[in-house]
Amino acid sequence: MWILFLFFLRLGFVSFGGGYALIPMIEREAVQQGWMTQDAFLNAVTVAGMSPGPIAVNLGTLIGYRTFGIGGAAAAVGGLVLPSIIMSAAMLLLIHRLRKQSWISRLFYGLQPIVTALILYAVYRLGIGSLDRGSWGGHLVFGLAIIGIGWVMLVRYRMPPVYLLLFSAIAGAAVLG
Question: Are residues 126 and 79 in the same domain?
Fold first, then answer.
């Protein structure tokens, strides 16, 4: 079980690119260590991908549980998320200690437009990618209406975001479904 924990701990430190980028490394180790056969691993990837949550965490849970039971599942998930917890805690402590520094507030102020631009770019790419040529007009108008109504719900009425998500899901299902 210690080898399982250390393997997922190493993955946790190099998990850039998301869980799907880790699948080949997890596969190689799981098959080499004899934790799973190739076919069992492919089935585990399918189940992990269909389950809610990050695929790497789901896959680690399945491999750990199949190999060492509940303790193995806890070891795999613990190893995978421990580096993120450590790095987040270290950044939190650093920011907390430096919060009185004027350059920190200027830094975060400067990051706001960049984060906003990245979010808008993701919305643009996902929105354009989901529209086929024939339905562009109607879907675009509907999407802009949802954005406008959502903005009013959030800014004017200060509704919790969960209500906005529910509203947009129901509206999308009613109009587009």
Answer: no
Q: Can you tell me the distance from the alpha carbon of 67 to that of 20, in angstroms, rounded to the nearest whole number? A: 21
User: Of 73, 98, 123, which closes a domain?
Assistant: 98
Other CB atoms within 10 Å distance of the CB of residue 75: 23
Check whether residue 164 and residue 144 sit in a common domain. Answer: yes
Q: What are phi and psi of 36, to 5 degrees?
A: -150, 155
Angstrom distance (rounded) from CA 123 to CA 117: 10
Q: What mean pLDDT is predicted for residues 97-117? A: 88
Q: Integer distance in angstroms from the first to the last C-alpha of the chain?
A: 48
Number of other residues whose CB lies within 10 A of the CB of residue 100: 8
The residue among 2, 75, 30, 67 whose CA lies nearest residue 22 is 30
| Domain span including residue 31 | 2-98
167's tokens: 């509203």
Mean pLDDT of the chain: 88
Task: Tell me: pLDDT of 177 over 90.
Answer: no
- Identify the weakest region by mean pLDDT among 18-32, 51-65, 132-146, 162-176: 132-146
Domain end: 98, 125, 144, which one?
A: 98
What is the rounded CA–CA span in Å between residue 56 and residue 10?
13
Q: Report how many domains make up the chain.
A: 2
> pLDDT at position 70, please?
97
